[in-house]
């Protein structure tokens, strides 16, 4: 196969990024693999590695796209409405996959991962929208809610 033009490479990269975003939002970050991309695109893994040298480089495909998706599901009118909208959003596949990725990154990368920056950005957004509330407390409530929703734990599972 011959070399491709810079424009074709950019078009290919945009197409692969769109595929990565689609797989991530609909199936989860753990489904974004070289094998999966190879299957979907018909390309060899070595060709994909020319675009994404390591699987950590897949993150470029979602950069700048996650926060707007999160925000479209949330109501920042008040703390109770924010918590309620978050709980409802956890029933939406794309939102749930994003939150699942945050939890996975927290486990795998701790404070070194890009998830930390995303959560801090959300805390800043909360602080700006709800200035009389404690953003750390809200983040802790939201991510506690995230974990219980991911584990499918609700009041019916609690001791009486």
Ends apart, CA distance between termini: 67 Å
What's the number of helices?
Answer: 8
Q: What is the domain tally?
A: 2
> What is the succession of H and E elements?
HHHHHHHH
**Fraction of residues in helices?**
55-70%
Radius of gyration: 18 Å
Strand content: under 5%
Strand tally, please? 0
Mean pLDDT: 93
Largest sheet: none
Global morphology? elongated
Structural class determined from secondary elements = mainly alpha
Quaternary structure classification: single chain
Low-confidence parts lasting 5 or more residues at pLDDT below 50?
A: none
Protein name: TetR family transcriptional regulator
InterPro entries: Homeodomain-like_sf
Pfam families: LuxT_C (PF18285)
Describe the structure.
- Pfam families: LuxT_C (PF18285).
- This is TetR family transcriptional regulator.
- It comes from Vibrio cyclitrophicus.
- This protein has 160 residues and is mainly α.
- It has two domains: 4-60, Arc Repressor Mutant, subunit A; 63-154.
- The protein has helices spanning 6-27, 34-41, 45-49, 66-71, 79-89, 93-109, 114-129, 135-150.
- The longest helix has 22 residues, at 6-27.
- The model has no long low-confidence stretch (mean pLDDT 93).
Give the helix/strand layout.
Blueprint: H1 6-27, H2 34-41, H3 45-49, H4 66-71, H5 79-89, H6 93-109, H7 114-129, H8 135-150
